[in-house]
Amino acid sequence: MPRMGRIVLANYPHHVVQRGHNRQVVFAADADYQRYLTDLRELKDAFGVKVYAYCLMTNHVHLLLAPGESTTGLSQLMKTLAARATRYRNRLEGRSGTLWESRYKSSVVQTDTYLLACSRYIELNPVRARMCAEPGDYPWSSYRGRISEDAPADWLDTDPYFLALGADPGARRERYAAFVKQAIPEEETRLIRDALQRGQLTGSDRFVEEIERIAGLRIERRGQGRPRKCSEK
């Protein structure tokens, strides 16, 4: 089998990160963040991609995306988002040139074991960066919209494992908030981070074998950790 390049699979979630060119600032004002989210909301439907989680940081974005039957939708979404943000920034600053790194990074996520863990990882980015004490304090991630009864992000897609957290929206919000507050094993954080940076899969050995069969690829293995389930303390 050939070795793995970037894998994109229909109907699987993908953890995606795109960084500013040379780590430059891509969001300098509230309007910059708002515009990107407006574009994301519009384009996800245009390209048939589900958005499960997001976090916009000063110089990069984290997204949890699931393309539909057309796998090209994910790359088209990222390309169009980047192009719109670049035109917007260049117009504001009266400049030309690139805003983003030329290639975004992505990792296919094992849905049953790691999807909620990846959502948590993404939404805790501002806390790890010491930009805020609690994920709900940060306005540019999906966390507020996920747990807010008063201002839900109704454009976000809801994955089946979030739905399984409770019988009604209130129970799901409460249980997810508790999940985010749990102590997170270092091996879980390391696995999610390293899988993304190295273009590996976010999942177990069995998941790697499953994707090898689906994609006809030989995939690099590494030590695996397993995240705690929402019910674990």
TrEMBL record:
Q: What SUPFAM superfamilies is this protein classified in? A: Transposase IS200-like
Q: Which GO terms describe its biological process?
A: DNA transposition
Source organism, top-level taxon: Bacteria
- In Gene Ontology terms, what is one molecular function of this protein? transposase activity
| Originating organism | Pseudomonas flexibilis
Q: Where is the Transposase IS200-like domain?
A: 9-125
Q: What is this protein called?
A: Transposase
